[in-house]
Amino acid sequence: MRKHSAVRRVTRFFWIPRGAERRRPMPVRRLAGLWLSMLALGAGLTALRWDDALNGSHLVTMMLLFHVVDDIVEGVRNRWPAALAAVALLWGTSRLTRAVLPAPLDAAWAATFAAAVGAMLGLAVAATITRGLPGVPGRSHAEPSPPMGRRPGRFD
Asked: How is residue 134 annotated by DSSP?
């Protein structure tokens, strides 16, 4: 019986069962608050010079990953494309920002700043994708999907 429940939990992570309700994405104000708290915690750890044990850039990156995994677990619409785009943009933007920053800047501050820029763009892209890509025209995010084999709006 335990094997069956473990398989069900893993399957739920990747595919939402029919009839299960989807959650709405996190409001934009809370996302802005999340990014500001990420920025404050990362800058605080970098200022305290805890770079060896807890790097500020790692904290900012982990907060973005926790947000993306939370969207996946909650079943937000278009969660997988949003997660892939957010992580790819975080990685690419962080690398590009580190390359552009001036050399005299301390390495820990450069890494934290680069991670903050990457996380901000990653959150923005994830928010845009989970709110912007329509599933079916004329249907809100809160409505359940129609049964398989039946198209909404035809011959109703």
From this structure: -
pLDDT in tens, 99-135: 888 877 788 888 888 888 999 899 889 888 888 755 5
Q: How far is CA 85 from CA 70, 112, 125, 148, 155, in A?
A: 15, 21, 7, 28, 37
User: How deeply is 144 buried, as exposed, middle or buried, from its count of CB atoms within 10 A (0-12, 13-18, 19+)?
Assistant: exposed
Q: Tell me how far apart the alpha carbons of residues 55 and 43 are, in angstroms, rounded to a whole number.
A: 10
What is d(CA 76, CA 125) in angstroms, rounded to the nearest whole number? 14
Give CA–CA dist 37/43, Å, rounded. Answer: 10
Give residue 149's Cα distance to chain centre.
32
The pLDDT of residue 154 is above 60:
no
In the predicted model, is pLDDT for residue 24 greater than 80?
Answer: no
Domain boundaries, the chain: 25-132
pTM for the whole structure: 0.69
